[in-house]
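Quick review question:
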């Protein structure tokens, strides 16, 4: 089995901090996300046993065959279950494929800043379930999302209080929690950076996505946001070249500029290929891999 980099707790006399050892070769840092392949991976809601689609637990083997990459980032929407039985099966499939999970992209429905306390507790419990899954799979990070709250605008204090408990739980299991600039209302990059600063622990980090903010805001806001996110990034980022914008038109990422921001912050973590535009995700992912190697070699 290909092992994930060791996560060692380093203490400075006050609290622990993660210390992952990332590969130095660019291709060894590349990860393939399952989300772009949502039309090819079995939908957990399907009941047919005749589907020709890929089962999530077999996705790593498939990625190895198609791209010669041995690290994946599964999306929780593709998991048929997060109970121990299925996660153990998933881990066995990873071992057989000589592959690992670099990060789990966790999407829940409950907001950690909701005014309703029960909803905040639901958000907290959901994230903790996936931290447990990460431990069983042998991965050292998850990305948890921050959905809109129906009863509140983004609230820094409530979000920080909820995430502080999630991250404290994660740190006891050597799991880093990442926040991604995705939802333009609740996950604006500058709000996330402020939130990370408020929680103030090395176990809560940013996951910069190359295209998400660009799809909703102007270039100045998007690239300043990416710069702020990479200053807080640690273990994983999402590489994209295009994204469907607000008007339904494609926006194009300036890869040279974005990789320049990444290098300026001396980012050493994983790079997850997340092709998210019309077209063949296989060809798109292969092209993203080639361009990532080009810009970082």
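Suggested answer, residue by residue:
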């Amino acid at each position: 089995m290909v092992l994930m980099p060791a996560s060692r707790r380093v203490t400075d006399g006050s609290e622990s901090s993660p210390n992952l050892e990332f590969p130095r070769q660019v291709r060894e840092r590349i990860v393939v996300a399952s989300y772009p392949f949502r039309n090819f991976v079995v939908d957990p809601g399907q009941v047919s046993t005749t589907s020709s689609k890929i089962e999530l637990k077999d996705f790593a083997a498939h990625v190895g065959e198609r791209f010669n990459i041995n690290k994946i980032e599964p999306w929780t929407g593709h998991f048929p279950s997060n109970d121990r039985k299925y996660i153990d099966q998933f881990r066995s499939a990873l071992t057989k494929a000589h592959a690992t999970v670099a990060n789990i992209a966790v999407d829940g429905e409950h907001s950690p800043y909701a005014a309703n306390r029960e909803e905040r507790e639901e958000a907290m419990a959901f994230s903790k379930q996936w931290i447990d899954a990460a431990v069983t799979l042998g991965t050292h990070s998850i990305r948890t999302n921050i959905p809109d709250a129906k009863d509140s605008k983004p609230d820094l204090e409530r979000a920080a209080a909820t995430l502080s408990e999630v991250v404290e739980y994660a740190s006891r299991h050597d799991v880093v929690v990442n926040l991604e600039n995705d939802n333009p209302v609740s996950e604006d990059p500058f709000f996330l950076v402020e939130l990370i600063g408020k929680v103030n622990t090395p176990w809560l980090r940013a996951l910069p996505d190359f295209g998400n903010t660009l799809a909703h805001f102007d270039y100045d806001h998007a690239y300043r946001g990416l710069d702020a996110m990479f200053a807080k990034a640690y273990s994983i980022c999402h590489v994209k070249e295009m994204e469907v914008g607000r008007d339904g038109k494609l926006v194009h990422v300036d890869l040279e500029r974005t990789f320049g921001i990444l290098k300026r912050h001396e980012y050493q973590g994983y790079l997850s290929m997340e092709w998210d535009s019309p077209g063949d995700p296989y060809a798109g992912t292969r092209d993203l891999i080639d361009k990532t190697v080009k810009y970082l070699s």
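Why it works: The radius of gyration is 18 Å. The first strand starts at residue 10 and ends at 11.
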